[in-house]
Amino acid sequence: MSELEAAAVADLFDLGGSARMGDVVARGEQGHIRRLDTDRGGFAVKESFAGVDDAEAEATAGFQARCHEAGVPCPRPVPDREGRYLSEVDGVAVRVMTWVDLVDPDPLLDPQAVGETLARLHAVPTTVTGEPHPWHTEPVGTQEWRALVKASRAGGAPFADRLAALVPDLLAAEALLTPMTSRQVLHLDLWADNLRSEPGGAPCVIDFDNAGPGDPDRELAMVLFEFGRDVGPRIRTLAAAYAESGGAGRVTSREDFGLPVAQLHHIGRYQILGWLAARDPEARARAHAAVEELIDLPLNLAMIDRILDELGS
To answer: In terms of C-beta density within 10 A (0-12 exposed, 13-18 middle, 19 or more buried), how is residue 135 classed?
Structure first.
């Protein structure tokens, strides 16, 4: 965005004068973020790549605002002058949040702090409408996994053989998938990219774009896998901190891991297709790195049982 567009964003969201827009500081699948500085401080400006559903964007930003008000460590969404969280500048969908300095994603964050933060999130009162998105509950399926292996081999993907060897484990995990009860609104994307720390070590939750109805048991299972890192003391510390802080979720069965299994598999499929379709080395490298994550630390039945054993001990 130019300086003129920076001024337009600052005016639209009433952010102050002397607006200066920086370069892209973070890039995701749905958009990128720039820092905007004004005489009132720093702000994060998220520009979306494609069409954004207005109602969904308003709902997720509203949930984030309630989380911030309830003391969850997260940026505060900033409404525009008309009270909307999603606006348009020169044809680009734009959202604004307060700026927070963050360190790189790290799944080895302090498990005590992670557990306490998740409990705070789950304590935010919400009104549930609608059903969980299929991304959180449905399998990729035998036919699609086999097609992905075939396409990966035909495309010369360096991960093709390891993906093929992993498919039986992927299908065994997908056999656990059951419908998810909509108990409350959840973040639903609490991977290390989105639960990070500030430079001083304090946790911070970002990117509420996928927030929606779900079961806190399953989101707890997601966080135990991502931040437990298959290390017994980390798993037990995180679970204990969550429970002692009032977290309502409990992980007691294999089926509780349905949310992270479904998400990881859909992310993996998306990234494999991204690798196959990539037209530049940077895009291919990003997709390759994401596929390697799926292969290197799969959420298989053995991993699920180890986590359950730690919780039971």
So the answer is: middle
